[in-house]
User: Fold this.
Amino acid sequence: MKSLIQKFKKLLNITQLDEFIIKKFLTTFFFGLAIFVIIIVIFDISEKLDDFLKSTATMKEIAIDYYCNFILFYVSMLSPLVIFLAVIFFTAKMANNTEIVPILSSGISYIRFLYPYFVAATFLAVLSFVANAYIIPPSTRNKLNFEQKYIIKKTEYKGQNRHFKIDEGNFAYIQSYDSKDNSGYKFTLEKFKGDSLYYKLVANRIAWDTVKKVWRIENYSIRYTNGLKERMESGEKMFLKLSLNPQDLEKQDDERGALTLPQLNKQIKVEKLRGTGNVSSYEMDRWRIITTPISIFILVLIAVTLSSKKVRGGVGLPLGIGIGCSFAYIVLMQFAVIFSTKGGLPTYIAAWIPHIVFGSLAIYLYKIAPK
Assistant:
C-alpha cells in the first residue's frame, strides 16, 4: 500500500509541501462537513421526534432508512460550500502565521502554489460527480419514501385536463385523474399516421390494473378511419398496454434529486416526447450534476486568492467575505433555476451563467493576488 502511494505521489509530482497542503485541505473539509451534518441531524431529530414517536417506524428504519440517507443528502448539498469555507479557513490561517510569504519567496510560483489545492479539488470533484450522478439519487429516493410513509403521508393528487404525447404519433387526454385509486375519467387516445387520424378511443373510465400492469378501459368506443372508410367498435371493458404508468400522471416535484444521471437522460427524452412542460426541471437537475464539479474548482480558486494575503484581524475578514461570496453564488444559481423553469431561459444558458460570472471573478482575483 505504501509503495502504491509513493508511486502515486511520484506520478503527480507531489512534494512534502504539497502533501502538507492536501492534508490540511482534506482534513479541514471532512471535519467541517462532519460538524455541519451533526448540527443538522440534531435539529432534525428535535423537529421530527414527535413524528417518530407517533409513527410505527422502528429504530432500525429511522437510523438506516432515514438518517443514513438524510446524511448523504446533506453531504451532497453542503459539500461545495464547506470546501469553500475549509480552503478559506486553513489558507487564511497559514497567511496569518506568515507561512505563505516564505513559500512564494523561495521561488515557487503562485500557479505551483495552487497545484496541491487543485489536486485535492480534483479528488473531491470526481467524488462529487460519482456521488451526485449514481449514489445520492437512490439514497434520496429512500429518504423520500420514508418521509411519505411515516412523516408527510403522501397526499392525494387529482389532475385535471391533462394532455400529453405518449409516443410518436400517439396522443392522450384525460379530463380528471385520482391518484388514490389510480383511475381517471373521460379518457381519449388518438393515433396518427403523419397528419391523418386513423384511430380514436374514447372511454368513460380508465384504471390501472396493479396485477397485469396494464390499463383497464371501461365503457369505451373506438373509431377506425381509413380514408373515407370508417368502422366503429364499442364495449364495456378491455385491457390496454400503454407506455404510460400512474406515476406519469401524478405530480413529480419530488423526483428532482432522486434520479440518477442515466435515469435523468431517459426521463428528459420521455418528457420531450410527451410535451408535458417538465423538461426544464429535469434538464436543470442534469446540469447541476455536471456543473457541480466545475463549481468546486471555481470556489477553490476564489477561496485561495481571497485568503492567501495576510490581513489585520486574522481569518475573520477573509472568512466573512468568503461566506458572502458563497451565498451570492448560491442565490445566483437559484435565480438561474427560476429563470429557466418559469421564465423560459434555455437551460444550458441558465446552468452556466453563475459559473461564468464567478469563474470570471476567480480569474480576476487570481490576477490581482499578491505573488
In short: The chain has two domains: 2-152+279-368, 158-246. The radius of gyration is 27 Å. The CA atoms of residues 18 and 116 lie 5 Å apart. The chain has ten helices and six strands.
